[in-house]
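Handoff note, outgoing to incoming analyst
You'll be picking up this chain. Sequence as last confirmed:
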Amino acid sequence: MENMPEFTLHRPDTAAEAVKLKSSDSTSRYLAGGTDMIVNVRRGIETPETMIDLTAIADIAAIATDGDGLRIGACAKLADLAVDETIIREYPAVAQAAASVAGPTHRAYGTIGGNLCLDTRCLFYNQSQWWRESNNFCLKHKGDVCHVAPGGKRCFAAFSGDVAPAMMVYEAKIDLEGPNGSRTIPLEDLYRNDGMDHLTLEQDELLVSIRLPKAGPGAVSAYEKSRVRGSIDFPLAGCAVRLTEDDGKIADLRIALTAVSPYPQMVNGLADFIGKALDDDALDAIRELVRKQAKPMRTTTVRPWYRRRVVGALARKLTVRLAD
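Most recent structure output, in case you need it:
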């Protein structure tokens, strides 16, 4: 790990001021908890001359009811999401995902906005400056070869945030503020399948809040991930499931995955299970559907075939748990 470079720090007290500061300096970066950003700066992956501290903007840190749903400020701490009574009761997968991020000290500082906007990760990218330089860097940063797939010109670094899939199964929307005004989009639309440029944010745009609509009656959810060290690591594969049953049959089923592609992905084709009983045949079919749609590459120390099997097993396991 390199020494921390010098930079200028601004601390605005409104989102509009933060956006204005960002727009005036192309070298600047937004900073909230900093649990990932500061590591990347010390490794030379990020080289901002200016950082814009968002922690003084009070109105983007609250968790509050909003009509029939919930509004979560982008600077709300992950630790607060994990213990919030409304989230635990109405959106259990979100609470579980927040509680699973890294370690307790990371969750005490890390924010939900940072976790949703987490940079994609790869074995060849998240290394020290000297390690990456000795390997001629990579396609994602300063190099011209993807060491995961040397024959192509595409980056496969994996999105490894925990909370995005848990919010996506609830059809979350996000509020954005930028130089051209404000807009609201589905959380799913924040991402694209590109490890080098996985966020669809417009220039200098800031994520200010997340909106979770009220869950339908009878809906239950859960999140779980596999990781090398249960105390701290990013997921090798993660899965969120939301299930609603009616008289022992599937009324609604939504599954979202993380860490198996450059973006958190919703599983397609689950409508085919509506009206079916959750027997072993259906559960096995759900597992295989998830496996087929997961496309992990060699971005971690664990082989892709294992992560594909794990994420399918997680989907089956969570569906069984929710059905009990």
